[in-house]
């Protein structure tokens, strides 16, 4: 039987967002956010996560609620322990499943962890721009480059059709890796190269929409790089949709034509769920939508 509600937690480097998800409507009912840096102490971090979860937990919930947690990598998803040293140093090796249960007072049901880019993709497959597709690729464009491959509700991280661990960011390109040419850092470089000055992505997109040739050229170069990175994996994985999320995807209209020129027509789509996609994907993990690939 499908539970009436599922809890979800999206862990970011500067904040955490908790959500209550209705698995029938496949929608986020309510959210709670807590802002704190990843460099905070373990007690402060875990207390904030639990506090946000308590805020979205419905009063009088009948029985414990399952909890899905979206986390950055590297992370031991089965054991529930962070393996990160560059982020959340105070949580390295901490058994987070037990720590969350202890702080919530009334232990939740199953606590399931998923990579944040993977669950973004799963959320868009389950309840967003790729709903109804058998196979899809989700890509997050922000400070870095994230990716997730989904086939029939399974997150695929192994096999010849996907890059190692399902991660595009470190796939080789001429002179470096994909994240060097497809990321916020790469777009900032292109902005300086084409416009002669540093510009925030929002301002650069506004200039491109207003007809600035230099801003348009910067986004065309960014889209061309993105399409080139995606092309071989689209050929291998054969998705019905490639969904783009993350902050940079809000400029989809100005870089998608150049990216799409490398791919089958109509394949690229902007996210429909944006910040809610990871919450929805994390919730879907608890419902058995996703099973490990082999």
From TrEMBL:
<dbReference type="Pfam" id="PF00480">
    <property type="entry name" value="ROK"/>
</dbReference>
<dbReference type="GO" id="GO:0004340">
    <property type="term" value="F:glucokinase activity"/>
</dbReference>
<keyword id="KW-0418">Kinase</keyword>
<dbReference type="InterPro" id="IPR000600">
    <property type="entry name" value="ROK"/>
</dbReference>
<protein>
    <submittedName>
        <fullName>Glucokinase</fullName>
        <ecNumber>2.7.1.2</ecNumber>
    </submittedName>
</protein>
<keyword id="KW-0808">Transferase</keyword>
<dbReference type="InterPro" id="IPR043129">
    <property type="entry name" value="ATPase_NBD"/>
</dbReference>
